[in-house]
């Protein structure tokens, strides 16, 4: 097995990184859009083989001492050669060095339930599941509910559980985490329901009042999606919100593949 040369990504690597992104998740991947900024801040790493970038990962600092792992990718033409394991092991070793230097306390990441290889590798490294969510979407939305963008207090987040869903990033539910989310998201109110939508994402998550008034939440989420020009509404719910999940299914929301209660896992590693 050939050994990858893993280094910080540079602007000269963008063409290869774009090629990886366009072959990931049927082209519905965020890496191409995010890579220039991640290269600029030095958080994106690239694995090189024979002069070509074939893999990536990113490590960035999040609230409450969390080092967030994301963007772990291997070009489809190079899968099956152990490169994914090399990239994951290097990400793990790099994160451990950052923790050992006192710059972070733990590593976390989120992944789809059927990302079997990443789940297997992360468990073998000592990561454990600490939270579960369900990502659902509905096509053909047509809501005209009145929505109001608000400047919320931290109290609207109190119904959440340990993390704040924020477009595949899940900051911890703490004052610093709330501020992190608010810097990247808008909070809306419709009726008695509040909800969060990240500005560069189509995902919406319920906040205070939404669990007591689920129909109001769904109408508001769909109205915001419609006003943003989306043909669909996308929501993220904690696995414990069983009544709201049931209502979502009854309203026509679904998941990519049949699931039993959740399809997004949050992993954590403590040294």
Describe the protein's architecture and organization.
- 30% of the residues lie in helices and 30% in strands.
- The protein has 7 helices and 12 strands.
- By secondary structure, it is of the alpha+beta class.
- It starts with a strand and ends with a strand.
- The chain folds into 2 domains: 5-104, Aminopeptidase, CATH 3.40.630; 133-266, Aminopeptidase (3-Layer(aba) Sandwich).
- The chain has a 12-stranded mixed β-sheet, sandwiched between helices.
- The longest helix is centred in the middle third of the chain and has 18 residues, at 83-100.
Report the principal-axis shape: globular
CATH class of the largest domain: Alpha Beta
Question: Mean pLDDT across all residues, rounded?
Answer: 95
**What percentage of residues falls in helices of 4 or more residues?**
25-40%
In the CATH hierarchy, the third-tier topology of the largest domain is known as: Aminopeptidase
Tell me the layout of helices and strands.
Layout (H helix, E strand, L loop, with lengths): L4 E4 L5 H9 L8 H10 L3 E6 L2 E11 L3 E9 L8 H18 L5 E7 L3 H10 L2 E12 L8 E3 L24 H10 E6 L2 E6 L4 E4 L7 H14 L4 E7 L3 H9 L13 E7 L1
Parallel strand pairs: 4-5, 10-11
Antiparallel strand pairs: 1-2, 2-3, 3-4, 5-12, 6-11, 6-12, 7-8, 8-9, 9-10
Helix pairs in contact: 1-2, 3-4
């Amino acid at each position: 097995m050939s050994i990858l040369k893993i280094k910080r990504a540079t602007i000269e690597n963008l063409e290869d990184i774009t090629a990886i992104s366009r072959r990931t998740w049927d082209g519905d991947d965020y890496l191409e859009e995010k890579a220039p900024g991640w290269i600029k801040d030095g958080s994106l790493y690239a694995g090189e083989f024979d002069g070509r970038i074939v893999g990536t990962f990113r490590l960035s600092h999040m609230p409450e001492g969390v080092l967030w792992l994301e963007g772990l990718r291997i070009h489809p033409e190079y899968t099956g050669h152990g490169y994914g394991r090399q990239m994951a092991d290097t990400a793990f070793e790099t994160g451990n060095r950052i923790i050992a230097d006192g710059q972070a306390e733990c590593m976390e990441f989120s992944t789809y339930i059927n990302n079997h290889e990443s789940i297997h590798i992360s468990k073998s490294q000592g990561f454990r599941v600490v939270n579960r969510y369900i990502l659902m979407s509905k096509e053909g939305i047509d809501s005209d509910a009145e929505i109001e963008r608000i400047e919320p207090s931290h109290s609207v987040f109190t119904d959440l559980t340990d993390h704040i869903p924020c477009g595949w990033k899940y900051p911890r539910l703490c004052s610093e985490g709330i501020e992190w989310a608010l810097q990247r998201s808008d909070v809306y109110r419709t009726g008695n329901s509040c909800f969060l939508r990240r500005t560069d994402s189509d995902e919406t998550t319920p906040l205070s009042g939404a669990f007591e008034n689920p129909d109001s939440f769904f109408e508001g989420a769909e109205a915001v999606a419609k006003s943003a020009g989306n043909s669909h509404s996308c929501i993220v719910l904690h696995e414990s919100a069983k009544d709201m999940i049931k209502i979502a299914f009854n309203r026509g929301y679904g998941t990519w593949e049949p699931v039993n209660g959740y399809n997004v896992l949050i992993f954590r590693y403590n040294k």
